[in-house]
Amino acid sequence: MSEEPEYDYEYEYNDKGEIVYYAIRPNKTRIKKDMAVLFALSEELSELPSTQLKALELPDILHKALTEASGMPHKSARKRLLKFITGQLNKIDIEPYLEKLARMKSQSAHAVREHHIAERWRARLINDGNAALTELLNDHPHADSQQLRQLIRNIKKETELAKPPKSSRLLYRYLKVLLNIDDDTEFDDALEDEAIDNTESETYEAFDDDEYEDDENEEEDDDDDDDEY
Questions:
Q1: pLDDT tens per residue across span 133-172
Q2: What share of the chain is helix, strand, coil (3-state, %, to 5)?
Q3: Residue 137's closest CA among 149, 153, 119?
Q4: Would you say 25 and 7 are in contact if contact means Cβ atoms under 8 Å apart?
């Protein structure tokens, strides 16, 4: 399948068949696709934790807008702000930021895998009891068997009495230290209580003009949004 040309060309010929005029204009289909990519990127950036967003070192105007968008509900006002962010991204070279984002994703994926190891061990210790504990102690003989057994007993009691899972969280944290997993609060809250859902993020569809139209029942004030920045 051939790629869309970046530009469309218009020609005019004289009676001799010679070109006397031609004009170059951007290919509209290509522009729409490019803007779709940037809009999806603005959405992704708006979902980043504040520490990662700051690490990207984006221009101040983009950092401010993305920070604001991250705390907004998914309604027309947020879409207008994402439109503004898309326009700002279109003005800069995004390749350096894409490279940084790719490195962050790689590091985050590694961290999730490590934290899943701790979560799986916790589940095995709770569900399989002595068999899992024996295996863990064989792999990590320096582990405190007495503390582990006490935590497991406490977890079962808390479960029976429907109490908050305090001991389950403590076991998770102990396993992180035992397995030499770096502390990363970005994942701790999700993994202390349950495994992270690794479903892939939503794939954005091709850009369409309607994607940038506000809902019929919403007021349109795009110009006001742009003026804020």
A1: 999 999 999 999 999 999 999 999 999 999 998 999 999 9
A2: 60, 5, 30
A3: 149
A4: yes
